[in-house]
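Progress narrative, work stream C.
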Amino acid sequence: MSKRRKHSASGATPRKTKIRDVFVARPFEGLPGEGDWVAMRELLPAATAPLSLKPEFAEQVGDREVVLTTVLPLAWPAMSRTDDKVFVAMQRQFQSGDVSRDIAASLLAALAAAPGRPVAVPARPGPGPRMQDLLSDAPLEVTVHDTFDYWLAPDADTENPQIGASMERANASIYPTSPLASADAGYWCRTPEHVHVRIVMPQDEDSALDALARLRGDDRLKLTEASKFAGMFRAHGLLVPVWDLAPDVTAEECESPVAEFMKRYAEALTETAPLTSAQRRARDGLVGRQLTLR
């Protein structure tokens, strides 16, 4: 028996079309504190920031506390806690080409879920509101935590051995991290291998790269003589230079060198003369040492 193809009313054979994600290179552009959004997405182990919804949207969901967090238990994208507090995670497992849209979908799903119930979030939500559409213009105020105890609701059974063991394992994964007052979206951290300073630069990539190349070409890129410029991340459309420091350097000891570097960097941003040959070589070297995070 021959197989017959189904035809549409026009006589053409219908074809399945695959919906492709639209990639947004700089998904947090336009949000106050764009660098801290990138840091919470890519750099920070345990951090939170309260979110302020636009008034017209807040009226629809009621008076609920909404908190942005780096990560949630079991890599959940969102959580609606028993006390009606809503958490939305930056470091979710699945993502489309627009991270801002993904996080907004997680937030909307959490607000629609009953307190204490699991939150069902689509892996790829499709077109819809982004975080820029849902939030007010309030700056992002990040708090870095030493533990994940903020996950637990006030009525959580902390005496439960399973909960205690789970929290102990999660807390053991946190490496010491401190925000730096001398640089927006600048953070000191101590990993098992190194002590680092990482700063998310808010300028567009080309401007930031040229400024860093000027400093490197003029041998002014180090934080201190004992520090080492380790390279850069490319994360969500922004550059994140990284410095290795001596193992005993504290966050407080970084403040003055970072402040001096940020002054040099601001000055380099204003320079308009063509790059010198040394600066062009430095720029090529910086590009070659970039690691893209997406």
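Work stream C, second folded protein:
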Amino acid sequence: MIYFQLFWNFFVIGCFSFGGGYAMLPLIDRLVTSHGWMSVEEFTEVIAISGMLPGSIGINAAVFVGFQTAGFTGAALTALGMVLPSFIIILLIGKFVQDFQDRKFIEQVFYGLRPVIMALIIFSAIKFALSMEIITSFSWKSTSFLIVFLIALGFLIFKKTHPMLVIFISGICGIILYY
């Protein structure tokens, strides 16, 4: 039964999540916490690990949840559930690309989805920060977190530093600051 639940729930998330992996995180979070598969703190760690790995953070998180919940089979089923809807949609769009290409309303729908996707990503970031008590407490750990965050954000925005370099250096900072 758990295998079907994992596949079906992640299939539904794959069907209705627009905007990539970060937009999926609030849905995955709600799913795993409501089923009791993970606590908010555990899922926060999943987000951190998934963000450092190559590939989509949404799929990485899904595979991690599947593995934690039902082992290798659970990981495979969550991955399949997440990618199958996109695969089917891409096949259908590819078949009818000429019809979709000239429709103005398709462009308008995607333009209308952009603010919602941005809101989902910002919501995930705020929820992540609140779950770590970074915003609500003042300590060495929260202060150093905010400093590393602001420096990393500055390098990403103003120096146009490659995200992988920022992730690598932030990981080293984490070892130095929190070891």
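Residues 57-95 form the longest helix (39 residues). No further action is required on this item.
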